[in-house]
Amino acid sequence: MYDIIVIGAGAAGMTSALYALRNGKTVLVLESESLGGQIATSPRLENYPSIKEISGEQFADNLFEQITHHGAEVEIEKVVAVEKLQDNTFTVKTEYNEYQAKSVIIASGVKHKHLRTKSNRDDLVGKGVYYCAICDGPFYKGQEVAIIGDANTALQYSLLLASYCKKVYVYTLFDKFFGDKSLVKALHSKENIEWRPNTSVTDFIGEEKLMAIEYKDADGSIKTHEIPAVFVAIGQVPDNKAFSNLVDLDNMGYIISDETCKTKTEGLFVAGDCRTKAVRQVSTAVGDGAVAATNASVYLESLDN
Ligand SMILES: Cc1cc2nc3c(=O)[nH]c(=O)nc-3n(C[C@H](O)[C@H](O)[C@H](O)COP(=O)(O)OP(=O)(O)OC[C@H]3O[C@@H](n4cnc5c(N)ncnc54)[C@H](O)[C@@H]3O)c2cc1C
Q1: Is the CB of 137 under 6 A from ligand 1?
Q2: Res 276 pLDDT > 90
Q3: pTM of this prediction?
Q4: 133 and 104, same structural domain?
Q5: Which residue from 29, 90, 163, 293 puts its CA 20 to 30 A from 215's CA?
Q6: Are 110 and 22 a contacting pair, CB within 8 Å?
Q7: Cβ of 31 below 6 Å from ligand 1
């Protein structure tokens, strides 16, 4: 029986583990994919206080080293269900195992939103259609690539790819970007980035791999653009269905909570991007991790008294 099980090893989950461990609690972190969550896919983190610049991967590695140093147990297993038992403990079910804990912190973050196209070509994901430029961009060094999206992730990906690709085409639905001014300025200063505003990518074309994208141009005409790779960065969505028996979800699927990181179930807490909040960033995720773990520790003390 663990004191606390943390679901998700992103910035929020690992910070939850850190605070819980330093409060003397036993902690198991369960992660379905790869350690670090979203920030591990970011080429550059520049807005985390006191760190001028760090790669997202390095940031995640540092955090992982810190929690294992303090005694965290970590397993790569996807949580498929959480149940609260009559004795007030929790059973956390993964695809392979069942674990018991006195308290649980959900830090499941968000996932990439997939682009729905005319022919629904999800089979081309990983074969020219990608959602992570830091992971798959290097395969296209010296080549031309396209980006779909108009916010910070799309801007960061464009700048990263422009540093080693021949040319980067950026497709946006509107004639403006919705990201940080400094990133927009940097994008406009790059000679090998071509912005295609007021466009809508309607299909991915190719048999075994992507050959071209089809798009509606600003004048309404349908065009094709031969390109070996497209990186989609159109936002994120939460995936909290597995926990809906114990938490309330808003109409977007975020877990309803506030700055206390409590849920409607006593002993069950939530931290990071997966909860209702205005700003989804590393700094707010780690803030939540600290709050959720502290409140979980207070809850555990109340069980002992
Ligand atoms: C490309 C990119 C660049 C970014 N740049 C910045 C930046 O410069 N500055 C900034 O502050 N923020 C940035 N962000 C946002 C920032 O990364 C997030 O706000 C923050 O990392 C959220 O952390 P989190 O732990 O809440 O969620 P996540 O990082 O999403 O982590 C959640 C983890 O939970 C795991 N998980 C989900 N469901 C389950 C389950 N059922 N069982 C087990 N594990 C599960 C996921 O696999 C994931 O690893 C960026 C995001 C991206 C994608």
Answers
A1: no
A2: yes
A3: 0.87
A4: no
A5: 163
A6: no
A7: yes
